[in-house]
Amino acid sequence: MIRGFGIIGAGIIAAIHADAIELLPDARLIAVTDVAAGAAAAFAAARGCAAEPSVDDLLARNDVDVVCVCVPSGQHAEVGIRAAKAGKHLVIEKPIDVTLEAADRLLAAAREAGVALTVVSQHRFDPGVIALKRLIDDGALGTLVLGEASTKWYRTQEYYDSAPWRGTWALDGGALLNQGIHYVDLLRWCMGPVIEVTAVCTTQTHEIEVEDTSLAVVRFASGAVGTIGATTAAYPGFPQRLEITGTQGTVTIEDGRLARAALREPVDTGSAAGSAPPAAADPGGLDATIHAAQLADLLAAAAEGREPAVSGQDGRDALEIVRAVYESSRTGRPVRLAP
Question: Is 114 left (phi over 0), alpha (psi -120 to 50) or beta?
Answer without folding.
Answer: left
